[in-house]
Amino acid sequence: MKKYNFNAGPSILPQEVIKQTAEAVIEFQGEGLSILEISHRAKYFQPVMDEAESLMKELLGVPEGYRVLFLGGGASLQFCMVPYNLLEKKAAYLNTGVWSKKALKEAKGFGEAVEVAASTTNIPDNYEIPQDADYFHITTNNTIFGTEINDRKLADIYRKKGNVALVADMSSDILSRPIDVSQYDIIYGGAQKNLAPAGVTFVIIKESCLGKVSRYIPTMLNYQTHIDGGSMFNTPPVLPVYTAVLTLRWLKKNGGVEWIEQRNKTKADLLYGCLDESKLFTPTILDKEDRSRMNICFVLKPEYQDLQDDFFRFATERGMVGIKGHRLVGGFRASCYNAMDVEGVQALVNCIKEYEKLH
Ligand SMILES: *Cc1c(COP(=O)(O)O)cnc(C)c1O
Question: What ligand 1 atom has the least distance to the C-alpha of 191?
Answer without folding.
Answer: 7
